[in-house]
Design goal:
This protein has helices at 4-15, 19-26, 56-60, 63-102; strands spanning 28-33, 38-43, 48-53. By secondary structure, the chain is α+β, with helices and mostly antiparallel strands. The protein has a single domain, classed as Nucleoid-associated protein YbaB-like domain (Ybab, Chain: A, 2-Layer Sandwich). A hairpin with a 4-residue loop joins strand 2 (38-43) and strand 3 (48-53). The protein is elongated. The mean pLDDT is 81.
């Protein structure tokens, strides 16, 4: 599979749980950089939902630093998403095994 999103789609198709993808798209994780000066919100499908840059950053820092902070915040958020997805996949795998045992 190419990505977690593809895996989620396959599991959704297999079990008919169409609300799973909707739930993942609505759960937000926030990554920060520069002590909270840059914040990035990402859903559990790794889609960037928002970027918030504190106004003070433009008065004190140059463009290159702001760009680095944005990249850092995005990577921070995506790392959290990967961790969340790994946990969710373990929960789904456990449920699948339980269903198989019941058969």
């Amino acid at each position: 599979m190419k990505s977690f999103e593809d895996l989620i789609k396959k599991i959704t198709e297999f079990y008919g749980d169409f609300k799973l993808q909707e739930k993942l798209s609505s759960e937000l994780t926030e990554g920060t950089a520069g002590g909270g000066l840059v914040k990035v919100g990402v859903n559990q499908l790794s889609e960037i939902i928002y970027v918030n840059i504190d106004d003070s950053i433009f008065n004190k820092h140059d463009k290159v630093l702001v760009e680095r902070l944005i990249v850092e915040a995005v990577n921070s958020a995506l790392t959290k998403v990967k961790s969340n997805l790994a946990q969710k996949m373990q929960e789904i795998a456990k449920k699948i095994l339980e269903l198989e045992k019941e058969k």
